[in-house]
Amino acid sequence: EEKLIWDEWKRITRFLESSRIAFGREELLWSSLEVKEKKEVSLVTTEGPSTYSVALSDHLKALRNHDVLFSLVLGATYALAESYGRLKLGLGDDEDLTGGIESWGKKLLDATGHDWSKVLGGLAGIVEVSAVRNAYAHGARSVNQKMVNRFTAHGLVCPWSLGDEVSLTYELVEIYRARIKSLMRFGNNKKRSLTLRSTGPARKAAQAG
User: Fold this and answer.
1) Residue 142 DSSP one-character state
2) pLDDT value of position 192
3) Is residue 106 very low, low, confident or very high in pLDDT (cuts 50, 70, 90)?
4) pLDDT tens, 14-62?
5) Distance CA 105, CA 8 (A)
6) Does the chain have fewer CB atoms within 10 Å around its N or its C terminus?
7) Quick check: 89 and 104 in contact, CB under 8 A?
8) Is the torsion defined by CA of 94, 99, 102, 103 positive or negative?
């Protein structure tokens, strides 16, 4: 089952990158055409009984806004981490993880002799990931008191102020996914392999000596 989880991780990664490639090529195609009044040109697609029509200008606008794509990828990645947590903590698929990721994530780390200092971004970083994921899942587009409280409850400094816009970029999604992967790796009893891998050239020099 663990292999299936990491296979799904790769599938989500391919979906993200291939979508960005497809969006870029589609935008380049239509932008290269000499269409002066893009609002007057419509694209129509039919699938079964459903028909969708959109002005070219709106189509291009949608292609340039990847916010929905990024939120889907983050949500799918987070759900995968929760499945991983249930697996490692011996819970069934129909059993809920107790507390937020800061709670069950600590259990994963405790079981493998690690703490949040080992995880990319630390506790504050993973709480930020969870807060943004929850905001998108519930349709919130600005920072609310509940999000701020997630940080203050652990004595952490919130990276936002009340009312700040919640948004996602490719760079942020990459950072958030890296933090989640870091938690999953360190929660998988990979202490020795991760330590060796992190030494890089120093390890090779030691082996050569």
Assistant:
1) B
2) 40
3) very high
4) 999 999 999 999 999 988 877 777 778 899 999 999 999 999 889 999 9
5) 20
6) C
7) yes
8) negative
How far out from the chain centre does Cα 132 lie? 9
77, two tokens = 């990645």
Name 93's Cβ contacts closer than 8 Å, sequence gap at least 6.
83, 86
Whether the predicted pLDDT of 127 surpasses 60: yes
Q: Over 80: is that where the pLDDT of 148 sits?
A: yes
Sequence-separated (6 or more) residues with CB below 8 Å from residue 137: 75
Record the tokens describing residue 27, joined without a space.
Answer: 């935008």
The closest of 140, 121, 124, 122 to 132, measured between CA atoms, is 140
Residue 60 DSSP label: H
Residue 139 pLDDT exceeds 90: yes
Residue with tokens 């490692």: 88
SS3 90: coil
